[in-house]
């Protein structure tokens, strides 16, 4: 059993979706996302860790310097001036502070003159800055310059008796040791992060491979399906998506099998239906040819039988031609404003003689006048098929009820009968082409399984819908709804 060209296009389309280029593959994208999910946290942790360390180290160093400055400023505040009798002692303390913190200390009086510079470069010079001005007002400052790698601290020197600020101690300390430690820490963090990322990449590769395995199995099944149907169904329940995909595929495969089986059966049935009348006609004609002096009564009887067989053949061919024509003119709708009441009455008038043969009563009930934009030929074909089926598959002395109604948007046609009904498992397939519910009965009455398919196609072309409600032995009801205004 092989797949037809239409089904092959569907399967190849699904397979093409699942099996794209390597960069667009699901495995690559999953792996990339997992790796990215590993890299981003490592980079964030590195940045936060280094930033936290730097901030903490600078704060500790600044606090230490401010503490030392406070002690020295208190000692200087006890002296009479910044170069008093304790100047040598203070200078020693300043030099010691400079050596410990690898920095520079300057003493500035209230006239902004540098009285002492541990570097010996700017003694006697004047310095005016915002930090010095603020400190002379009694408020010390601190500032960290990460670009130039130094901490600058100012501390006011106040008279111990009057608390009057008479100078400023300005300390500039290098942060090279902090930066060096920061570089070492960054190197260690990156080494550890690199190892973690390598492990993470390996995990990503393994995990992505495991995650796409169900899709690989589905792809292989699709590849197998391109050569022919596989008897086994897909059962891939690893994820919700794969389960939904396999269910959809199994449903599609099942419908393709049913369609293929129905086509095969249809070809067999049509061959039988076409062959049987031809055989009968040949037998009848041969009988007439081989007999001499055939009585007129027998001749008429044989010709009547020939006419019936020709009619059977003609009906099968007409159904096939109607379906082909419907397919070819699917995009061509001859829309016009049609009185639906009149249309239905005309169809029922044509079919009542057929119903009368089996004493079937045909009743038409119209609730209001209905005018709609439809293709009269196609809609007539649909209604005719529905009513004709209701008559053919009915009980003797039964009834067919046709109702017409409308609202502001749609009109509704209901065809109900007291016929043999349809089993629940059959209702999902009755609109499929070549499908016949009661095959033996259909053959007896000349059915080909195309009538409902033709009706549904015509209704769908009008942007309408058709539903069926049926119980075996209790009849069938078809409900059709079609827009009053056709929208192309």
From TrEMBL:
Q: Which residues cross the membrane?
A: 26-45, 192-212
Question: Where do the HAMP domain residues begin and end?
Answer: 209-261
Q: Which top EC class is named for this enzyme in its record?
A: transferase
Catalysis performed (reactions) = ATP + protein L-histidine = ADP + protein N-phospho-L-histidine
Instruction: Write down the species.
Output: Dorea formicigenerans
Residue intervals of the Histidine kinase domain? 269-486
InterPro entries, alphabetized: BphY/WalK/GraS-like (IPR050351), HAMP_dom (IPR003660), HATPase_C_sf (IPR036890), HATPase_dom (IPR003594), His_kinase_dom (IPR005467), HisK_dim/P_dom (IPR003661), HisK_dim/P_sf (IPR036097), Sig_transdc_His_kin-like_C (IPR004358)
Q: Where in the cell is it found?
A: Membrane
Per UniProt, the keywords (alphabetical) are: Kinase, Membrane, Phosphoprotein, Transferase, Transmembrane, Transmembrane helix, Two-component regulatory system
Q: Kindly provide the name given to this protein in its UniProt entry.
A: histidine kinase
One GO cellular-component annotation of the UniProt record comes to: plasma membrane
Per the UniProt entry, what are the Gene Ontology biological process annotations, in alphabetical order? cellular response to phosphate starvation
Q: Does the keyword Acyltransferase apply?
A: no
Note the superkingdom of the native organism. Answer: Bacteria
EC number of the protein: 2.7.13.3
One GO MF term attached to the UniProt entry: phosphorelay sensor kinase activity
- Report if keyword Translocase is assigned: no
Question: Which CDD domains does the annotation name?
Answer: HATPase, HisKA
């Amino acid at each position: 059993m092989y797949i037809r060209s239409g089904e092959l296009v569907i399967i190849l389309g699904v397979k093409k979706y699942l099996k794209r280029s390597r960069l667009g593959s699901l495995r690559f994208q999953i792996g990339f996302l997992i790796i990215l999910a590993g890299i981003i946290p490592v980079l964030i942790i590195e940045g936060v860790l280094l930033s936290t360390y730097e901030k903490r180290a600078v704060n500790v160093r600044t606090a230490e310097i401010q503490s030392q400055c406070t002690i020295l400023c208190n000692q200087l505040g006890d002296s009479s001036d910044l170069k008093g009798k304790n100047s040598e002692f203070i200078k020693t303390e300043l030099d010691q502070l400079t050596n410990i913190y690898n920095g520079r200390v300057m003493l500035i009086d209230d006239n902004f003159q540098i009285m002492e510079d541990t570097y010996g470069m700017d003694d006697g010079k004047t310095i005016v800055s915002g930090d010095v001005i603020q400190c002379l007002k009694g408020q010390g400052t601190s500032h960290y310059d990460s670009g130039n790698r130094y901490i600058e601290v100012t501390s006011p020197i106040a008279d111990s008796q009057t608390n009057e600020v008479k100078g400023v101690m300005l300390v500039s300390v290098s942060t090279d040791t902090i930066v060096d430690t920061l570089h070492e820490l960054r190197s260690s963090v990156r080494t550890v992060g690199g190892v973690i990322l390598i492990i993470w990449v390996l995990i990503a590769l393994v995990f992505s491979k495991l995650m796409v395995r169900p899709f690989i199995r589905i792809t292989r099944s699709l590849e197998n399906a391109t050569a022919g149907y596989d008897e086994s169904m897909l059962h891939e329940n690893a994820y919700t998506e794969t389960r939904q995909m396999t269910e959809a595929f199994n449903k599609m495969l099942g419908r393709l099998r049913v369609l293929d089986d129905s086509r095969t059966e249809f070809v067999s049935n049509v061959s039988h239906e076409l062959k049987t009348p031809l055989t009968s006609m040949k037998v009848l004609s041969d009988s007439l040819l081989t007999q001499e002096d055939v009585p007129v009564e027998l001749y008429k009887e044989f010709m009547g039988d020939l006419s019936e067989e020709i009619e059977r053949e003609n009906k099968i061919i007409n159904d096939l031609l109607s379906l082909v024509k419907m397919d070819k003119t699917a995009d061509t709708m001859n829309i016009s404003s049609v009185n639906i009441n009149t249309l239905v009455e005309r169809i029922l008038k044509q079919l009542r003689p057929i119903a009368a043969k089996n004493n079937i009563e045909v009743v038409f009930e119209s609730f209001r006048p209905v005018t709609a934009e439809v293709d009269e030929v196609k809609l007539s074909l649909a209604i005719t098929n529905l009513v004709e089926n209701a008559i053919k598959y009915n009980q003797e002395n039964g009834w067919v009820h046709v109702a017409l109604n409308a609202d502001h948007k749609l009109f509704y046609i209901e065809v109900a009968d007291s016929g043999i009904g349809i089993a629940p498992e059959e209702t999902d397939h009755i609109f499929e082409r070549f499908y016949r519910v009661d095959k033996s009965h259909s053959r007896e009455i000349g059915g080909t399984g195309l009538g409902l398919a033709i009706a549904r196609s015509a209704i769908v072309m009008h942007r309408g819908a058709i539903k069926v409600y049926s119980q075996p032995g209790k009849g069938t009801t078809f409900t059709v709804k079609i827009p009053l205004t056709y929208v192309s």
